[in-house]
Amino acid sequence: MQVKAPRGTYDILPDQVHKWHYIEEVLKGTAELYGYREVRTPIFEHTELFERGVGESTDIVTKEMYTFSDKSKRSLTLRPEGTASCARAIIEHSLYNGLLPVKWYYTGPMFRYDRPQTGRYRQFHQFGVEAFGSTSPYLDAEVILLLVEILNRLGLSEFELHLNSVGCPSCREEYRHKLIQHITPVKDGLCKDCQVRYQQNPLRVLDCKVATCHEAITGYPTLSEYLCGECRDHYAIVRETLEQNGVKYIHDDNLVRGLDYYTKTAFEVHIPDIGAQSAIGGGGRYDGLVRDCGGPDLPGIGFALGIERLLLAVESLKSSCVRPVGIEAFVTVMDDKYELQAARLVNELRQAGIRTDKDYSGKSARAQMKYAAKLGAYLTLFVGDEEINGDFITIRDMQSKKQEQVARDHITDHVKLLLQNY
Ligand code: HAM
Q1: pLDDT the model gives residue 380
Q2: pLDDT, tens digit, for every residue of 237-256?
Q3: Which pTM was predicted?
Q4: Atom of ligand 1 nearest to the CA of 280
Q5: Measured in angstroms, how far is the CA atom of residue 404 from the centroid of ligand 1?
Q6: Does residue 280 have its Cβ closer than 6 Å to ligand 1?
Q7: Which ranges constitute the DSSP H helices of 34-168?
Q8: Rounded distance, CA 25 to CA 38, Å?
Q9: Average pLDDT in the 58-84 region?
Q10: I want to staple 137 with a disulfide (CB 3.0 to 4.6 A). Which of 64, 191, 237, 348 is the partner?
Q11: Which domains does the chain have, with CATH numbers?
Q12: Is the CB–ligand 1 distance for residue 303 below 6 Å?
C-alpha cells in the first residue's frame, strides 16, 4: 500500500516554496524593523507547559494536542502554539533579569488535531511576536501596529481588525459570576462541551464554535461593562494610539479568544475573502502567563499569524511580487565530447554567483534548449565545435533570441552584465 502524508499535513514543493520565502522575508524584515529578534524553541515540550500555559479547559489542550510518551515515559507534546514556549525560555534563561522588554519573533510548524479543511491543518505554520516585561499600553499598540504594517507590506489592506479588552483576573471574576448567572437558566440549550465547562470557564461559551450556544445565551452581559478602572484606562490608551496612527478597528465584545492566558487587550485579524477560516492572526496581552509557567510576575503581549492563511490571502490578490526563483543561465552541450568543458563553464559561472544548470540525461541540443526554457533560464550558453576551436562562447538571450559570441576569458563578467537587464 502507498504511504501518504498524514491527514492535515502536506508537502511544500519547490514550485510553491518561493511564496513562503517571500512571505517569511516580509514577516522577519518588518519584525526586525520594530526591534524584534528571532528565537527558535523546540518543536516539542513537556505536556505540562501547555496545560498550565494555554489552559486546561481550552479546546487546544482538551482535544487538539499531539501528546505522546517518549521511551522514558515522559509526556511530551508537539507545540500547538509558540507563546508558552517563549515564556518557558524566558524563565529558563532568567531573561527577566536583563534588558526589558524582551522582544522576540519566531516562525515554524505548530500542531493541532482538528478537522482539516481549507485554511485549517494539523501541521500548520505560524509567525509570532512576543514582548515580555512591560505593562505599557503603548507596547500593545506597537504590537498591533507591527501586525498592520506586515499586512500592508503584503498588499493585504482589506482586513478587519477586531479589538477587545478581556480585563484582568479581578474584574473578570465579577463578570464570570454575572455570566454564570445569565447562562444557568438556559444551560440546556448549550452544546455538551459548554454544559460541562460553563461553570468553570463561562467565557469559553462566548468563544464556542457551535452556533446554537450563541443563540442560547443571547442578551448576555458584556465584559466591557465590568472592566475595572485600570483595565478601562489601558484599553482607552491602546485605542487612542491606534486611532492616532490611522489604524481602523472594530471594538468586538464577543472577542474572547480561545486560549486562557489573555488579560486586557485581545485582538484578531480577519480577511473575509479567504473563506470559513478567515482569522489570519490573533493575539493579546498575557500578564499572568510567565507566573503560571513557574516564573516571576512578568507581563507580556504578542500575536501569531497563520502562514497558510496569509498565503491564501496573498494568492487571492494574484500578487505579482511573488516570483519563483529559477536559474539564470543554462549551458547547452552541442556534442558529448565537450561535457568536460561544459562542466568547467558551469562551475565557473556558479562560483561567480550566477544560478546555472545543465542537462544530465543526454538530451539533444534542441531538447536542451526546451529544457532551459522550462527551467526559466534568461541566457543559454553553447559549447560546441565552433566555440571550442574559436575560444569563445555563444550566448543566446532566451527572450529576445539575440545571439552573440563572447571571448571565453570574459564570459562570467559578460554574463553578469547581461543579467543586470533582468
Ligand atoms: P491562535 O489564534 O490560536 O493564537 O492562532 C493564531 C493563528 O494561527 C490563527 O489566527 C490562524 O491563522 C493560525 N492557525 C491556528 N490554528 C490553525 C490551523 N489548525 N491551521 C492553520 N492555521 C491555524 C495563538 O496561537 C497564540 N499563541 C497567539 C499569540 C501570540 N497570542 C499572544 N502571543
Answers
A1: 98
A2: 999 999 999 999 999 988 98
A3: 0.90
A4: 12
A5: 55
A6: yes
A7: 47-53, 59-63, 83-92, 137-153
A8: 12
A9: 96
A10: 237
A11: 14-168+228-315 (3.30.930.10), 329-419 (3.40.50.800)
A12: yes
Measured between alpha carbons, how far is 170 from 60 in angstroms, rounded to an integer?
A: 25
User: Nearest Cα to 255, choosing from 326, 305, 207, 192?
Assistant: 207
Among candidates 401, 189, 391, 150, which has minimal Cα distance to 269?
Answer: 150
CA angle 262–183–254, rounded 5-degree value: 40
98 burial (CB, 10 Å; 0-12 / 13-18 / 19+) is exposed
- Pocket perturbation via mutation, ligand 1, pick of 60, 130, 289, 309 by most ligand atoms within 8 A of CB: 309
316 confidence band (pLDDT: 50, 70, 90): confident
| Side-chain half-sphere CA neighbours of 177 within 13 A | 6
State if residue 302 touches ligand 1 by the CB under 6 angstroms criterion: yes
199 CB-side CA count, 13 A: 4
At a CB cut-off of 8 Å and minimum separation 6, what does 73 contact? none
Report the pLDDT value the prediction gives residue 321, as an integer from 0 to 100: 58
The predicted-structure confidence for 320-344, as pLDDT tens digits, reads as follows 556 677 899 999 999 999 999 999 9
Note the pLDDT of residue 199: 87
Give the pairing of strands 37-38 and 102-111. Answer: parallel
pLDDT value of position 242: 98
Instruction: Map grid coordinates 531538447 to a residue.
Output: 367
Q: Please answer whether residues 304 and 127 qualify as being in contact, where contact means their C-beta atoms are separated by less than 8 angstroms.
A: yes
Does 130 contact ligand 1 (Cβ within 6 A)? Answer: yes
pLDDT at residue 283 is higher than 80: yes
Q: Is the CB of 121 under 6 A from ligand 1?
A: yes
**DSSP states of 365-396:** HHHHHHHHHHHT-SEEEEESHHHHHHTEEEEE
Q: What is the mean pLDDT of residues 349-371?
A: 96
Q: Would you say 87 and 56 are in contact if contact means Cβ atoms under 8 Å apart?
A: no
User: pLDDT category, 63, cuts 50, 70, 90?
Assistant: very high
Contacts of 78 by beta carbon, 8 Å cutoff, 6+ apart: 43, 44, 65, 66, 111
